[in-house]
Amino acid sequence: MTEDLSPAERYAAARIRAAEQATALAPFRELYDFGLDPFQIEACQALEAGKGVLVAAPTGSGKTIVGEFAVHLALAEGRKCFYTTPIKALSNQKYADLVKRYGVGKVGLLTGDNSVNADAPVIVMTTEVLRNMLYAGSQSLVGLGYVVMDEVHYLSDRFRGAVWEEVIIHLPESVTLVSLSATVSNAEEFGDWLDTVRGDTEVIVSEHRPVPLWQHVLAGRRMYDLFEEESDHGGRGPGKREVNPDLVRLARMENQRTYNPRDRRRGKMVREADRERERRQRSRIWTPSRPEVIERLDAEGLLPAITFIFSRAGCEAAVQQCLYAGLRLNNDEARRRVREIVEERTASIPGEDLHVLGYYEWLEGLERGIAAHHAGMLPTFKEVVEELFVRGLVKAVFATETLALGINMPARSVVLEKLVKWNGEQHADITPGEYTQLTGRAGRRGIDIEGHAVVLWQRGMDPGALAGLAGTRTYPLRSSFRPSYNMAVNLVHQFGRHRSRELLETSFAQFQADKSVVGISRQVRKNEEGLDGYRAGMTCHLGDFEEYARLRRDLKERENDLAKQGAAQRRAAAATALEKLKAGDVIHVPTGKFAGLALVLDPGLPAGRANGHRGFEHQDGPRPLVLTVERQVKRLATMDFPVPVEPLERMRIPKSFNARSPQSRRDLASALRSKAGHIVPERHRKQRAAAADDREIARLRSELRAHPCHGCDEREDHARWAERYHRLQRDTRQLERRIEGRTNTIARTFDRIVALLTELDYLRDDEVTVHGKRLARLYGELDLLASECLRDRVWEDLGPAELAACVSALVYEARQADDAVAPKLPSGKAKAALGEMIHIWGRLDALEEELRINQAEGVGQREPDLGFAWAVYMWASGRGLDEVLREAEMPAGDFVRWCKQVIDVLGQIAAAAPRDNSTVAKNARKAVDAVLRGVVAYSSVG
Q: Are the CB atoms for 187 and 156 separated by under 8 Å?
């Protein structure tokens, strides 16, 4: 080839090769036994040129290579590199990878739990650790040259996203930032912001999947391709992909009405032959069972596979179903290796705990090559599953979606059982972004030539909608940044109030808000043009139709107001009646799911807050706890009582009654039926409507009839135009308010937070008081509440276990609200301290409401949750794992996770607590030791 070049061309080519060899990238490329992709080379070259980079690429495409090049550059230049990840599991994995390459001496690890070689030039850490270092002005920042932010799209996370923005804004200018993100549709917008706050930033976007992904639907015995073969390119090719017509036909056939003997066709019964053909067609469509799916994938050579089930219980049930079905995916040699690895990794767990943790059932699944993976599992168990899966010794994993956001566990295939999941509030369709994240695990680079995403057929499935999910591979990055109390005192301490305000206005949240104002302003202009047209349409030759339309609206609003007032009065009367109820009253619930006879177990007055009840809001009124005749114990609300309720009878509730015991509920419900089953409640009489006697309504009706436009033949036509005019005018005013509201939103929230902190003497203008300095060391959702408890000496003289119980209320949040039974609490000083914490929270909540600090927008202090206090108290008191988990009714993984969060906050309290004759710091350290034992202490590096 070079013989064809002229001497000048050969000389130029030689110079280019020599220049490439002189770069830091050349020796770095030799560390890998595969060639780098164009996007990786482009990003590495930008980094070497001194630019920051944002790399947005699909899962599994190898974007971490760019982060590793930043490590390589830092070591070559004699500077430091911090590699940040969103979760400890990822930190552990990246630490192990870098130690393998650069050796133990050059790599450290910092997570909330552990510190390993903290002075190393390369440190892997969670993002929160770096944020805390920045606020504390840590000496470790000296000599820092590069920061890699892996999974930077986490800044969309509602709960933790703000941390990413805090780090990006506060990093010293001399630090080069490497941002690694999943494919997002607004990477350029994010890059523009990074360019504004960090300086020259190169945006590199790659949508190329190194391993093509094929999409399928499994219905009955047949695996259908989602897209027509000639239009699909494994998610990599150009052009529009067409939905497989066989799938469309299948959906149409399934959606046809099933046979009904009453159906008629041309006046005759549907012929038997038609019914038989329909039955045969339908017999080919069903949702395969979990063992059938795994067997089918095994037969097609599509294992290892991850099946995503949006339920922990579902994951565990899937493993059991496969075991009962006799599935065995491992041979004898693989089974032996699995047992060796498992026994080695779990050697430190005492034998008596293994049974409690379900070890033997778990091991049986692993030996057969089958496992679950979810947040309720013990961290050690999860890590073993991950290791065995990567080694190919576990071939079928049933996982919740948390796996898709975490560690590196690629598979040949990914299976989605359903396209709907519970989002904490309701069952919602998964988004294109979530679908991309889940299916992105399919296809292992360097192992598989293609990956496979399999969706199980479900009744009512729309192949077109599924194709839309699979075809939209990007999702927008939305900032979740909100100022917090801790952030405010740290910022004011470092920069003063004015500069802090300016810094917050450089956040990505404000950047996006300001940008969106441009589009809203354009819409306002369009609306104003539309208003001119509507005004012409409602013009009436008899008079001012705008005035006539206003009278009609005023009349309608007055009627609606009176109707609302009547409803409010009825609700108030019902609430007053509820407040008079006592335990043992027999009542009739008039409406709702639990209508019928019920026995009041607890009147549920708002004062219940003080004695440990959680979940009540004062404005909600009484919420009686009742036993229905159907043996259900439920917490009712005022909405279940549209009319006042009166006791029909009285009953004695046995002292031995236990709301959690089915037998207790059955016996008491039977006594209820015997005592009051024959009573017929009185019907509530309807009252005369208030509108009938209202003078204002009479006046408006009179003016309406006297108006000239009332006699117009085209009155209703004009009225339709007037209604459109009014609606558009209302929408336009809302848009104008949004424009006003979006400018300086973050700074305005900061001002309110500063006002509250000034009121409580945490700040005095630009000075941070001694209380403020304490708050600066407390990180967490309830940072201000923790600081106020220290200030009011609420936790003085508590023992270590009692202190752990109180601190649990600052971190714990129940997965689902359970108002039926008040949580069990430790007695004595701990119970009194928890009550005082609730009281302080109530005071802060009232102050936040007064200053318009809105919890719905992610700012402010939520109510402490006492649901974990008893469990952590027992554990810190030295009780056994079996007893604690049984009492807590909680999976081991959840128990460990909450304990570790309690330990984290106890450590902060030990550092922040006053030293003057206070026992809190000493007892917080003792509490850490008491909680960090046994199952809580079993974990690998992080």
A: no
Residue 798 is given by DSSP the state -
Measuring CA to CA, which residue among 394, 344, 830 is closest to residue 612? 830
Token pair of 308 as six digits: 């995503």
Peptide bond before residue 304 is cis, with ω within 30 degrees of 0: yes
- CB atoms inside a 10 Å sphere around CB 753: 25
- 820 three-state secondary structure: coil
Core vs surface per residue 439-455: b (16+ CB within 10 A) or e: bbbbbbeeebeebbbbb
What is the SS3 assignment for 185? coil
For residue 145, the one-letter residue type is G
CA distance 354 to 352: 6
Question: Comparing C-alpha atoms, which of 535, 249, 559, 302 is closest to residue 412?
Answer: 302
Instruction: Name 674's bridge partners.
Output: none
Q: Kindly state the greatest CA–CA separation across the chain.
A: 110
Contacts of 641 (CB under 8 A, 6+ apart): 574, 577, 578, 589, 590, 591
Residue 336 backbone dihedrals phi, psi, to 5 degrees: -65, -45
Tokens matching residue 912: 């922040």
- pLDDT for residue 112: 65
Strand residue runs (E) in 105-250: 107-110, 115-116, 122-126, 144-149, 176-181, 201-205, 213-219, 222-225
Residues 740 and 270: their CA atoms lie apart, in Å, by 65
Burial of 827: CB neighbours in 10 Å, binned 0-12, 13-18, 19+: exposed
Q: What is the pLDDT of residues 463-495, one digit of tens each?
A: 887 887 776 656 677 888 888 899 899 989 888
Helix (H) or strand (E) holding 261: none
In 104-180, which ranges are continuous DSSP H helix? 127-136, 161-170
Nearest to 86 by CA among 169, 133, 155: 155
Q: Give the pTM.
A: 0.69
Q: Is 791 exposed, middle or buried (0-12, 13-18, 19+ CB in 10 A)?
A: middle
Q: Is the dihedral of CA 460, 462, 465, 467 positive or negative?
A: positive
Task: State residue 10's pLDDT score.
Answer: 67
CB-based contacts of 541: which residues, under 8 Å, 6+ apart?
A: 712
Helix or strand or coil: residue 39?
helix
pLDDT of residue 257: 47
DSSP of 719-752, one letter per residue?
A: HHHHHHHHHHHHHHHHHHHHHHHHTTHHHHHHHH
DSSP state of 84: E
Q: What is the pLDDT of residue 54?
A: 92
Residues of the chain with pLDDT under 70: 1-5, 9-22, 112-114, 229-241, 254-284, 402-408, 422-427, 471-475, 516-519, 522, 606-620, 682-693, 740-744, 815-821, 855-858, 939-942
State both tokens at 124: 């892997």
User: Is beta strand 633-635 parallel, antiparallel or unpaired with respect to 625-628?
Assistant: antiparallel
Whole-number Å distance between alpha carbons of 563 and 559: 6
Q: What is the pLDDT of residue 258?
A: 46
